[in-house]
Amino acid sequence: MHGNQIVEKILKLKNWKKLNITQEMAIKEGLLDSSNNLVVIAPTSSGKTGVALLATLQALEAGKRIVYLVPMTPLISEKEQDFGDISNNIAGSNSSPSDWDKADIVITTFEAFYRTALVSPTHAQGFALAIIDEFHVLYDHLRGFNLEKVITSLKELGVRIICLSATFEDKQEIAEWLDAKVVLVPEDAREVQLKHDEIDLSHVNLAKQNNELCKRLLEMKKEPYLVFCTTKDSTSARAREMCSLLDKILIDEVKLREAFAKRLSRKKLTAQEEELLKCLLKGVGFHHSGLDQRLRSLVEEMFANKAIKYLFATTGLAYGVNFPAKTVVLADTSFYAPSTPSKRTPIPIYMYLQMAGRAGRPGFGNEGYAYVVKKKGQTDVTKYRSGVIEKAVSVVGEDDYFRKTILELVYSGRCRDDQILGFFKNTFFNFQSERQKVQFVPFNLFEVLKGHVQYLHSNGFIEAAGAAGYKLTGLGEVTIRFLFNTFTNYPLAPFLELNNILEKERKIRMDLSIIHDISRLFEGACLSKYPREKSEKIASFYENIGIHASDQGSPEYSAYAIYYGWMENQELADIETNYKVFASQCPQVAKELSRLLTVYEKLATRKGITVPANFRDFKDRVRFGVTEEELPFKRLRGVGRGSTRKIKMYCDNNLRRPPWNLKGSILEIFIQIYKKDGENRFAEILRYVKGIGKGKKHEKIVDLVRSKVGKT
Q1: Average of pLDDT values for 206-234?
Q2: How distant is the alpha carbon of residue 501 from its chain centre?
């Protein structure tokens, strides 16, 4: 099908009147009449998805298959809707690589495609076209690492690549690396023009800045606002400040509490969740990683539905689905970057432009504004309006990223020097390094690779395998399997230290100390401590074991809260109050702790260290947040922490008291009743437990006890 026929068909399928300038410029550069790679650099909301649709439709008409790559899972469903008009054979949300083989269009994340290309290459083959959305993610320190590896894999597969980017500097350099043509669309192509400005608070006292910022937002009357903050504490603090300036209740509290309870499967809220609810009643929200993911999703939905007029969020929302923000505000111009976690660094211009692009999205009005807040003592912030962004620099060359890539390649079977070297030759890192004109020490990729291989060998991640090249050790295999299966971005050092702990102790621990070690080593396994708050009980506990108050932070408070709160099945609200942590994170952090305890277990097994028979129980208690005697019931599908808590309360208040006076664990008590009085009587007694009733929970508990009786 010729290019003009493709255009006619897409206009009809999408009910468009005509193509816009972005799509026309892409066609002019060979989108539909060549197989050239393209990099389309166009403002946000200027029709880049339309470029992808045109190229995809042409490939489909030619009987070819397409893979569409996005940086985040939530974007998959959005793209499924975009492409649903041109194909009904899409593998997107909830699909696995085995489903890809039957699909005409595959929509997946950078990480998922890269992993598949390495470990299950047949599922990643057979695509004629790869479209990379949010290509400017290459700038991002964490996500850029994975994107560069994806593109390197695609280059090896010989797939046509079309990159879609909101902004990019060094256009010629990226074009040469990809052997691509660049389509540079002017800023005025944006459907809704953005107006950039400053909010000058440089003469406002620090203590009053939040109040003054909120007053300015109210005065400007440019709702809905999306205000980007760089710490969890500042998002909620500014939301509270905005609430204090508003009187009108916009949402029914009873219905909102019902929505919270439905999302969380519990009615009792933590202090932070109560704070969020009170804010939402007035059309104000906050969004950060300290909130339960289910509440974050609720906040996003409410903002998308315009129930929130003022949303204060951390930078995670800079990449995401379309929101109806008229105005974006960058409230902080420095943050704790992944590369410098211990000190604040200026927010890069590319990141600001990504945030600003959330404003004025098509379909949500015809105005868009982006403001940067200027504070006392700050240097000139006009650079954010200049549009001149930083040079993109490969992060693959950073030691830890380079070494992880080597481990991934060895894991996938590319074990020889020439095979590993072949992959790195195609990277952006190698391309940039070879282009350096002036170097005191000339760049030599082989020598760089040699140094990293020697590090991995000397630290026990790989070992020589003769003519076959290298093979992973137990440490290397456990580490890379975890990283591949979870898509987490931990450095190698924590795995090495956990391995060294086992080597030194030669035993498995099942107490607070191992939870503390894992929380200390792995950021994702650690609850965030409330800033500037202290628990005397926790402080005293750690002082007694040699950890001074000045060294007590989130890992210490997190481990204590998990061990003495979560694993004792305390209410999240009580955990937050008693242990000064963001307790909404407990389910997420507990899941990560459990996964890392499995890493600990596997490393021990590889060393021949005996794993106690009850280690699984310890791990499950961490995962589910229940006591030892509650655990058998929590393992039943559909029985939550609240239900197990009520079962225990019923035993404590009734079955362990006169006239019953039964002894033993809950399960042992239930077995005693079952044996003595029969199943019908036991089932009748169980119905008295609040929240169990006569439904599926009741049936599953009866089945459990029956099975245990049959084994005695």
Answers
A1: 95
A2: 28
Within 452-506, strands assigned E span 462-464, 470-472
Q: Cα separation of 233 and 528, whole Å?
A: 10
Q: Structure pTM?
A: 0.91
Q: Rounded CA gap, 364 and 463, in Å?
A: 57
- What pLDDT does 318 receive? 81
Average pLDDT value for residue range 488-505: 96
As a whole number, mean pLDDT of residues 582-607 equals 97
How far is 384 from 402, CA to CA, in rounded Å? Answer: 32
Q: How far apart are CA 532 and CA 327, in angstroms?
A: 32
- With CA atoms as reference, report the closest residue to 593 among 515, 527, 520, 517: 515
Between CA 97 and CA 107, with CA 102 as vertex, the angle to 5 degrees is 55
Q: Which residues contact 150 (CB under 8 A, 6 or more apart)?
A: 69, 110, 113, 114, 117, 132
Other beta carbons less than 10 A from residue 34's beta carbon: 11
If one counts every other C-beta atom within 10 angstroms of the C-beta of residue 110, the result is 25
Residue 406 has pLDDT above 90, yes or no: yes
pLDDT for residue 28 = 94
Task: Give the distance, in angstroms, between the CA of residue 225 and the centroid of all CA atoms in the same chain.
Answer: 23
Containing H/E element for 368?
A: strand 368-375
Please give the single-letter amino acid code of residue 438. V
Domains detected in the chain: 3-189 (3.40.50.300), 194-386 (3.40.50.300), 399-483 (1.10.10.10), 493-624 (1.10.3380), 631-711 (no CATH)
Structure tokens at 408: 């991934």
Place of tokens 């998922």: 112
pLDDT by residue (tens digit) across 312-330?
Answer: 999 888 876 678 899 999 9
Please name which of 27, 79, 373, 351 lies closest in space to residue 214, comparing C-alpha atoms.
373
DSSP result, 266-319: -SPPPHHHHHHHHHHHTTEEEE-TTS-HHHHHHHHHHHHTT--SEEEE-GGGGS
Write the CB contacts of 251 (distance below 8 Å, at least 6 apart in sequence).
280, 281, 283, 307
Strand order through the sheet with 225-228: 194-201, 368-375, 327-330, 225-228, 310-313, 284-287
pLDDT for 339: 56
DSSP-based helix, strand, coil % in the chain, nearest 5: 55, 10, 35
Sign, Cα dihedral of 201, 203, 209, 211: negative
Q: Kindly report the three-state secondary structure assignment for every residue of 524-575.
A: HHCCCECCCCCCHHHHHHHHHCCCCHHHCCHHHHHHHHHHHCHHHCCCHHHH
- The Cβ of residue 629 has, within 10 Å, a number of other Cβ atoms equal to 17
Contact 35, 161 (CB under 8 A): no
pLDDT for 340? 57
DSSP 8-class letter at 581: B
**How many percent of the chain have pLDDT more than 90?**
79
Residues 6+ apart with CB under 8 A from 169: 350, 388, 389, 390, 391, 392
Cβ atoms of 615 and 508 within 8 Å: the answer is yes
Q: Distance between CA atoms of 199 and 208, rounded to whole angstroms?
A: 14
Answer yes or no: is pLDDT of 678 > 60.
yes
Collapsing DSSP to helix, strand or coil, 344 comes out as: strand
142 has a pLDDT exceeding 80: no
- Burial of residue 47 (CB within 10 Å: 0-12, 13-18, 19+) is buried
Tokens of 271: 């202090």
Q: What is the pLDDT of residue 321?
A: 64
Q: Is it true that the peptide bond before 658 is cis, omega within 30 degrees of 0?
A: no
